[in-house]
Design brief:
Layout: H1 2-12, H2 20-31, E1 36-39, H3 46-57, E2 61-65, H4 72-76, E3 77-82, E4 87-92, E5 99-103, H5 110-113, H6 117-122, E6 124-127, E7 130-133, E8 139-144, H7 157-160, E9 165-167, H8 174-182, H9 186-192, H10 199-209, H11 216-231, H12 241-257, H13 265-280, H14 284-300
Parallel strand pairs: 1-8, 1-9, 2-5, 5-8
Antiparallel strand pairs: 3-4, 6-7
Helix pairs in contact: 1-2, 2-12, 10-12, 11-12, 12-13, 13-14
């Protein structure tokens, strides 16, 4: 499994240069059966990463550009009258796919944002009173621009919590940027990308995560981190039980990706900022600060109690 995962990371790194850490975290999120939120300035490679992840996993991929006039029906689908059959026919929306890229999700209204809630949590949608199952596996990879940019609608707490992890890509280092400037167009590279992990292998990896062992001392460490986030007055709110479960599952997945059958504190430390930072605060000014506060949490809580 580790060899396959390393191959997938290497394949994605051919189009997203100098971002191996972010690529591993993004892959960790999807292998942990989570949904991914990528927040950064335009042009940083958010869409490229999303497309590359779908390609290396060999999954059906759809992209929705979220705009201020987008309607829920544009995502979920709609029933139209068929004159030939004299009956209404349901036309599925782009959400009926395995990987959905919700591009610039915070540029649409809360009503359209909430159309994703049931799909992300339950793997199904209810349209016109009828529940329809989504394909499996089903992942949402959403991108959003910083809240400081004009024309954005902050995601509500309930939707932020549906994302297992939040990442930022940042500017490339000088060496990676030079290769980017001298290299060929990314669209051509994406077209040549090969599938590295099959759907069957993906399901097998996801099931193997459940078998990763966590010692009592490791669970004590996780609980101390969670308790500290709730007691710290710098945070708008602490990690919920769902947040604690998310942290543990991502740590197990990171251990599996590292070729281990058990979780060590370093696994928790690697994934905690991406799992916790969007859950520790919800006000726009705290969302930015929570990046530093997540690392402060790691500094304040001892590995051994």
């Amino acid at each position: 499994m580790q060899k396959k995962i390393d191959q997938a990371v290497a394949e994605i790194s051919t189009v997203l240069l100098g971002k191996e850490s972010q690529v591993r975290l993004a892959l960790c999120c999807l292998l942990a059966k989570g949904h991914l939120l990528i927040e950064d300035l335009p042009g940083m490679g958010k869409t490229t990463l999303s497309n590359a992840l779908a390609r290396v996993l060999g999954l059906e991929y759809q992209r929705v550009q979220f705009t201020s006039d987008l309607l829920p029906a544009d995502i979920l689908g709609v029933s139209v009258f068929n004159r030939d059959t004299s009956a209404f026919q349901f036309i599925p929306g782009p959400i009926f796919t395995q990987v959905l890229l919700a591009d610039e999700i915070n540029r649409t209204t809360p009503k359209s944002q909430s159309a994703l809630l049931e799909a992300m949590e339950e793997g199904q949608v209810t349209i016109e009173g009828q529940t329809r199952e989504l394909p499996a596996p089903f992942f949402v990879i959403a991108t959003q621009n910083p809240a400081t940019q004009s024309g954005t609608y902050p995601l509500p707490e309930s939707q932020l919590d549906r994302f297992l992890m939040r990442l930022s890509l940042g500017y490339p280092d000088p060496d990676a940027e030079r290769k980017l400037l001298l290299g060929e167009d990314n669209n051509k590279k994406l077209a040549r990308m090969r599938q590295v992990i099959s759907v069957a292998e993906l399901v097998s990896i996801q099931q193997a995560v459940n078998e990763i062992h966590c010692s009592d001392s490791l669970l004590d460490y996780v609980q101390r981190l969670v308790a500290s986030s709730r007691d710290n007055q710098q945070f708008v709110c602490g990690l919920s039980p769902r947040g604690a479960l998310a942290l543990l599952r991502c740590a197990k997945t990171w251990a599996l990706m590292s070729g281990r059958g058990h979780v060590v504190p370093e696994d928790v430390q690697m994934v905690l900022p991406s799992v916790a930072e969007h859950r520790l605060g919800t006000a726009s000014d705290y969302q930015h600060q929570s990046r530093g506060l997540a690392y402060k949490l790691l500094e304040d809580v001892a590995v051994i109690g």
